[in-house]
């Protein structure tokens, strides 16, 4: 009996080992690469027809229409394909959730309401099978964000080709997240809900005052020259008050965004709004107070019942026209693979194609504080590059043929593609 069980375990082990994916991080760039005869979308609005982009040691060394390919590296003739900066998903639970229905794979929340000391980066799972589905759609960087409670902790930016979270870290603890209590009835995807049975405005404002009290106590603590005892939660607020870290406030409607602006003023913080469904109505205030907006879930119904049905599609263009810094985002983790296509939708509702591209590249980099090293295809920046046979923002023509993260050519395979090939062969329809 024991021998039989051992044989079954051995066979199962061999089977599962053979079933493992062969996708692993690429080696560091060894010699220069020249991408020639390409349509280069720089990411700042500039488009270079029949251009060349060169990069070495992970950094872009030259980009333009009159760049000569050197004999010291690899020359790749793209024959008119399109070259883009890698898309950036600014706010996601990628790597913190694998299966939404399996509790053991969910590591995005912590117990308690106020947890500024929580760091999402140390829970980031680089072996998530979802990551590869994003890369094959041109998404190369992501802001990994904690959830739960009111102050949920700090997010970090990761690059999506790594062995572990230390390798993945691109910019750590760049933003602290404040989930604003709902003050009015909003569309929660299942109809309009007002939250608790009691007055949502009263309950929400009480919670906001509790958060303000916590911030004031943290400020007072940090101003003391010495402490009788260390308070980890207060200590974790130091970088926020020094403006080395941003405060991302998750809110949707005008009342909530006015409170976000009040936070920025009272505590002199660098604030960005995440969500901002009604941000189009207060563009002057946002511009005046230098508040950026991460527009969440552009493919959705309007939040308020009296909004235009296509308002989520139009908001980006309205912020662009008003001069408010914004970018596009998506909820969840696997949904991030559609981010480029949502930018494409925004380009049919008032944005130009290059403005829509900036909304998922340069603008996102600015809001996340990484625009000095990525977000555009400019000399000196990291070679985070996506190459598409067609328009990367168009679902029909987008075919990502190559991608590079910090100069490393990454594997674009994924589990879904492998299953597709498997059943092509099973049913005899493979080419």
TrEMBL record:
InterPro entries: Amidohydro-rel, Metal-dep_hydrolase_composite, Metal_Hydrolase, Metallo-dep_Hydrolase. GO terms for molecular function: hydrolase activity, acting on carbon-nitrogen (but not peptide) bonds. Signal peptide: none annotated. Residues 347-391 form the Amidohydrolase-related domain. This is Amidohydrolase family protein.
């Amino acid at each position: 009996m024991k021998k039989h069980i051992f044989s079954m375990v051995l066979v199962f082990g061999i089977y599962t080992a053979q079933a493992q994916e062969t996708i692993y991080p690429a080696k560091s760039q060894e010699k220069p690469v020249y991408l020639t005869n390409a349509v280069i979308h720089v990411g700042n609005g500039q488009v270079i027809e029949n251009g060349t982009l060169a990069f070495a040691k992970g950094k872009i060394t030259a980009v333009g229409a009159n760049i000569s390919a050197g004999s010291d590296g690899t020359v790749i003739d793209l024959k008119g394909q399109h070259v883009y900066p890698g898309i950036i998903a600014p706010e996601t639970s990628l790597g913190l959730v694998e299966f939404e229905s399996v509790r053991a794979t969910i590591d995005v929340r912590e117990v308690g309401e106020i947890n500024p000391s929580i760091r999402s980066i140390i829970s980031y799972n680089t072996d998530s099978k979802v990551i590869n589905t994003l890369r094959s759609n041109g998404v190369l960087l992501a802001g990994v964000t904690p959830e739960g409670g009111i102050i949920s902790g700090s997010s970090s930016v990761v690059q999506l080709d790594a062995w572990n979270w230390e390798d993945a870290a691109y910019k750590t603890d760049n933003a602290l997240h404040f989930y604003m209590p709902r003050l009015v009835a909003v569309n929660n995807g299942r109809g309009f809900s007002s939250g608790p049975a009691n007055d949502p405005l009263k309950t929400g404002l009480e919670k906001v005052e509790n958060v303000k009290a916590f911030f004031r106590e943290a400020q007072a603590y940090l101003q003391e020259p010495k402490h009788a005892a260390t308070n980890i939660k207060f200590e974790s607020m130091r970088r926020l008050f020094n403006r080395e870290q941003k405060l991302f406030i998750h809110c949707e409607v005008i009342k909530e965004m006015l409170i976000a602006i009040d936070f920025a003023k009272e505590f002199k913080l660098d604030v960005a709004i995440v969500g901002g469904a009604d941000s189009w109505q207060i563009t002057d205030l946002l511009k005046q107070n230098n508040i950026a907006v991460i527009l969440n879930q552009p493919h959705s119904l309007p939040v308020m019942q009296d909004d235009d049905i296509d308002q989520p599609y139009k908001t980006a263009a309205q912020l662009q026209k008003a001069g408010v810094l914004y970018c596009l985002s998506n909820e969840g983790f696997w949904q991030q693979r559609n981010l480029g296509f949502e930018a494409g939708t925004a380009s049919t509702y008032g944005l130009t194609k290059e403005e829509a591209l900036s909304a998922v590249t340069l603008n996102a980099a600015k809001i996340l504080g990484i625009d000095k090293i990525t977000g555009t295809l400019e000399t000196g920046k990291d070679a985070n590059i996506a190459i598409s046979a067609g328009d990367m923002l168009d679902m029909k023509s987008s075919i990502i043929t190559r991608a590079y993260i910090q100069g490393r050519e990454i594997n674009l395979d994924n589990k879904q593609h492998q299953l597709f090939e498997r059943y092509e062969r099973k049913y005899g329809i493979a080419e």
